[in-house]
Amino acid sequence: MQNKNRPQKGVLLISKPLIGDGFFEQSVVYLTAHGKDGSLGFTLNKNSSLLAQDFMNQLPGEDPIYYGGPVEQDALFYLHTMDTLNGAKQAGNGLYLGGDYTVLQEAIRTARELNLESVRCKFFLGYSGWAAGQLEEEISQGTWIVLKPPFEIEPLELTSEAWRKYMKTLGGEFALWANAPEDPWMN
């Protein structure tokens, strides 16, 4: 019997209400890797005030940068849908992590010029990482809800409201938290 709370590549981790962690409070994390050495993921709903174009002026449009996690917040990462991008690592559900940025940038430019949605991408500063066994322990302590695909909202389309939407979808006691402020004690 498969444990439905088992972390694995390609799942969403939804933080339970009031976990008491400044960064992960009201977070939705996409897990891109999980194995005996630990876990890696990206918080999908924590907007920064920065745009990818602030750093890469060759990229057309206005792509927001999200805070991917508390680790290496000075490094830029990206999840995308280009399965042929050299150096990209498969991240589950038709998503890929990293790869040749010059080629990705050109593919995005071409797709936007032709008004196509063939290449989708989301940019992050930092990532979320767990040592071996750490994520399993946090799940067993009730910090995270594990959601397996198919997802109600496609991961690259998640916005800052995603946590609230998932709380409503989970229903019951979670639906009560959907409209709570990030820190209810600061009311």
What does this protein look like?
This protein has 187 residues and is of the alpha+beta class. It has one domain: VC0467-like (3-Layer(aba) Sandwich), CATH 3.40.1740.10. It has helices at 101-113, 134-140, 162-170, 172-177, and strands at 12-15, 28-35, 38-43, 47-51, 64-67, 71-80, 89-90, 96-97, 121-131, 144-147. Strands 1, 2, 3, 4, 5, 6, 7, 8, 9 and 10 form a ten-stranded mixed beta sheet that branches. Strand 2 (28-35) and strand 3 (38-43) form a beta hairpin. It is globular, with a radius of gyration of 17 Å.
CATH class identity: Alpha Beta
Number of strands: 10
Order of helices and strands: EEEEEEEEHEHEHH
Unreliable stretches, pLDDT < 50, 5 or more residues?
Answer: none
**Tally of discrete structural domains:** 1
Count of separate DSSP helical elements: 4
Our Rg estimate from Cα atoms comes to 17 Å
Which structural class should the secondary elements be placed in?
A: alpha+beta
Terminal-residue CA separation: 44 Å
- Beta fraction of the residues? 25-35%
Give the tags.
ten-stranded mixed beta sheet, alpha+beta, VC0467-like, 187 residues, 10 strands
Please provide a brief summary of the model.
This protein has 187 residues and is an alpha+beta fold.
SSE map:
Elements (H helix, E strand, L loop, with lengths): L11 E4 L12 E8 L2 E6 L3 E5 L12 E4 L3 E10 L8 E2 L5 E2 L3 H13 L7 E11 L2 H7 L3 E4 L14 H9 L1 H6 L10
Parallel strand pairs: 5-9
Antiparallel strand pairs: 1-2, 1-10, 2-3, 3-9, 4-5, 6-8, 6-9, 7-8
